Amino acid sequence: NPRHRLSPLTCDAPGLRQSIRDALVRVVGKDPDLATPRDWLHAVSFAIRERIIERRVVTRRQFAEEDVKRVYYLSMEYLIGRMLEANLRNMGIFEVTQQALQDLGVDFREIARLEEDAALGNGGLGRLAACILESMATQGYPGYGYGIRYEYGMFQQHIEHFRQVEHPDNWLRYGNPWEFPRPEKTFPVRFYGYVVEHHRPDGETSCNWENGEEVLAMAYDYPTAGYERRNVNNLRLWAAKATRDFDLRYFNEGDYIRAVADKNESETISMVLYPNDATAIGKELRLKQEYFFVSASLQDIFDRHRQLEYPIEELADKAAIQLNDTHPAIAVAECMRLLLDEHRIPWDQAWTITQNLFSYTNHTLMPEALETWPVALMERVLPRHMGIIYRINHEFIEEVRHRFPGEHEFFRRLSIIDEEHGRRVRMAHLAVIGSHRVNGVAALHTSLLKQTLFADFSRVWPERFVNVTNGVTPRLWMIQANPGLTELIDSRIGSDWKFDLDRLKQFAPYASDEATREAFRAVKLRNKERLAALVHKRTGLAIRPDVMYDVQIKRIHEYKRQLLKLLHVIELYQRIRDGEDVLPRVVLFAGKAAPGYQRAKDIIAVINEVADIVNHDPAMGDRLKCVFFPNYEVSSATIIIPAADLSEQISTAGFEASGTGNMKLAMNGALTIGTLDGANIEIRDAVGTENIFIFGMTADRVSAHRAQGIPPGAHLDSHPRLRSMVEALRDGFFSNGGRHLHAEIARYLLEEDPFFVLADYAAYSDACAQADRLYQDAEAWSEAALLNVARMSHFSIDRTVREYAENIWNVLPEPVPPPC
Ligand code: 26Y
After folding, report:
1. Ligand 1 atom closest to 128 (CA)
2. Residue 445 Cα: closest atom of ligand 1
3. From the alpha carbon of 281, which atom of ligand 1 is closest?
4. Which residue's C-alpha comes closest to atom 9 of ligand 1?
């Protein structure tokens, strides 16, 4: 329609300059003479978003015309980070925008760092969701993300008196230029109330869920640009709003003030991200958050299906829904509710559609992270869903009763309802039963899933369980984070590898080229200088750029074993004090502890107190620095990772589902020191055993060791150095006000040590020594590092997404032609 033709937006420097200036005045509303750096940040963001949304319109239109099958990714978490630079790069206008800003007298770096990270996630699972969205756009898959627009994201971590202190993350304080509010896309979501049954003439019962409370879910859209101006997909985040008639009751009673004040209560649903990543907390508000975004998303998906005039019976032919862990698993029951109660589809047909529609990704084996909800709570908050879950369970148990007669113990274990812990709904069971595919996130993890958590289910449906090893986006984690390395690779093999990471293999021969190795070391050094400057700014600590950078960056958790690395710091400290000659290094820790996870918070405090002693002891003579980098987030990861030499991936084998930081570090030329856990195993297979330091008990050995019941303290008998290290800790040598805390950590290691830090210490220390030896041979180290870079192509998220598309979703890419 010619009346709807857009005025053309140019992507050259003069056109961008004009757009930015226009946006500053017309959108931000500022006189350029008075504009602050943040005003410029908003102006440039508005100028860029115009160009992105234009591509979004084209992409959406093409999907509608081509009758594509769509993928819906349901995730409680998206750990996106800053959007400006990522959007500029993916839109292919990074350099030219910098130029335009320079022409306006604005420094890109200065304004870019003012942007808040979008930290709508805890860690690996949330970051994976963000990488998957970016890859779906880059590869042209019709992918839609759905989640929650938390008012407050992951808390900001401050370190005060060595301890973690949480501060609220008010990331929307200055407004957010990247979001498009869609007040017209608003769906009601019901809680509580009761179910009224109707017996229909056709023998089916249909139900009405009546009364209760309604909250509105309002959409906010975040367009996600594929690399090099390819497709633009949409991330739709829901915010809770009070219903328009929230006030009716009180209004009628004449209590106007109370009516308006109560509005806040329903809006708390999308207020804050739960900062736990390993312990299910079982709070009613969390269940409401889960159902809130699931219900809104499914209503939206059903609506789109109807608007495209597809028959409801064909839902699973036109859509695939991926559950990112069990957090959205209530979607299985909600989908059944919509099909049964709204569309009057018979149970069996509704169930077939639902199973074909859903698939579920598991991210953990740890029992405390598995979500189960008390039946009584579910019954009260979601009475209709509880009824549907009972029926799903009944039909399922009937089926297995038929196939495995008499195995009562087996049925009890398979049931969605756990009858032993006060009757609870096992969300993982609901997700498995309601999906046609269930995947783990690394080969070892999937095989352990089949042997342990889902052993019974895999007897029932062996073909349902598949592996899809995680990946990361090279656009953010190589090209953006490490421009120096990118330039070096481009100069050797051209730039095709950016879309097809397999082409990075062509870089491998350059590992034996002296000039390339030297150039690589120069890049590393610059990256270390960049990190050292940031460390100085954040902590006041000065670190040398010319030593080994040894990093452990991830959530703080017992199973990830930050204490293992800390013991090694203590060992190096004692060795230097004993007059030994040790390789100079900087050990850097970063990561947040869940606010209610006392042990993890104690670990942070002990790291900081040890660091304080180490860093101020003149006997160290600059040979050892220990840094706790505060408030680890996506934007700091992009600075830390490219500077790392050694990547600590030292979880107790069998506990880390995959890891993705391990991939980011290796593709930036850090060598991994790690256990045979998660994706480390596949990384070893890819980079070669000689280019990685593997140590410690395997998952099998860990189980056997646990069965032996050796007291952890016994490991000190054969290791006098380890004894003196743990005793120094116990006796408060490193304590600075936290003496009892150090004693407690020592006691914990000696008496409990549930993750076998002491059992693995000797092997770990040997592996560290091996790494030190190789590092002293700069040429050999650089060769190994370059081989890591060249051989990590398997861990591109593009490969991961293709596996989901081909083996699980059955969807095809629909690339939109590039703009002329
Ligand atoms: C139920 C609630 C407490 C909960 C919330 C968040 C439970 C778990 C999580 C997050 C888990 C998570 O981030 N898992 C990580 O997923 C990554 C992506 O698959 C893996 O690489 C990583 O090993 C795993 O710990």
Report:
1. 18
2. 23
3. 3
4. 277
Distance between CA atoms of 370 and 78, rounded to whole angstroms?
20
Q: Whose CA is nearest to atom 1 of ligand 1?
A: 280
Q: Identify the residue with better confidence: 612 or 281.
A: 612
Q: What is the DSSP letter of 623?
A: S
> What is the number of other CB atoms lying within 10 angstroms of the CB of residue 514?
11
At residue 251, the pLDDT reads 64
Average pLDDT over residues 66-95: 97
Distance 635 CA to ligand 1 centre (A): 20
Which residues are catalytically annotated?
A: 363, 554-555, 560, 660, 664
Distances (CA, A) of 15 to 44, 51, 485: 12, 12, 31
pLDDT (mean) for 372-387: 98
**d(C-alpha 773, C-alpha 429), whole Å:** 49
Query: What count of residues does the chain have?
Result: 820
| Interface TM-score (ipTM) > 0.85 | yes
Q: Is the CB of 440 under 6 A from ligand 1?
A: no
Is the C-beta atom of 282 inside 6 A of ligand 1?
no
- How far away, in angstroms, is 24 Cα from ligand 1 center? 40
Do 657 and 277 contact (CB within 8 A), yes or no?
A: no
Number of H helices, E strands in the chain: 32, 24
The backbone torsions φ and ψ at residue 336, rounded to the nearest 5 degrees and listed phi first, read -60, -45
As a whole number, mean pLDDT of residues 74-82 equals: 98
C-alpha 312 to ligand 1 mean position (Å): 34
Q: In the structure, what pLDDT confidence band is assigned to residue 244 with cuts at 50, 70 and 90?
A: low
The phi and psi torsions of 289 (rounded to 5 degrees) equal -60, -45
pLDDT at 379 over 60: yes
Task: Check pLDDT > 80 for residue 126.
Answer: yes
pLDDT over 60 (residue 90): yes
Residue 128 CB less than 6 A away from ligand 1: yes
State pTM to two decimals. Answer: 0.98
Burial of residue 160 (CB within 10 Å: 0-12, 13-18, 19+) is: exposed
**C-alpha span between 315 and 267 (Å, rounded):** 31
Q: Where do the H-state alpha helices sit in 245-382? A: 248-252, 256-267, 284-307, 315-318, 331-337, 347-357, 375-381
Q: Is 678 in the pocket of ligand 1 (CB under 6 A)?
A: yes
- Ligand 1 atom nearest 657 alpha carbon: 23
Choice from 74, 286, 363 to test ligand 1 binding pocket (greatest atom count within 8 A of CB): 363
Chain centre distance of CA 533: 27
Q: 202 falls in which pLDDT band (50, 70, 90)?
A: confident
Higher local confidence (pLDDT), 751 or 281: 751
Give CA torsion, residues 768, 770, 775, 781, to 10 deg: -120
Locate 732 and state its tokens. Answer: 């408060």
Terminal Cα-to-Cα distance of the chain (whole angstroms)? 19
| Ligand 1 binding pocket includes 728 (Cβ within 6 Å) | no
**Beta pairing, strands 78-81 & 118-120:** antiparallel
- The reported pLDDT for the residue numbered 487 is 98
Look at 243 and 339; give whichever has higher pLDDT.
Answer: 339
Tally of CB atoms within 10 A around 506: 15
Position 23 scores a pLDDT of 98
Structure tokens at 89: 């790069």
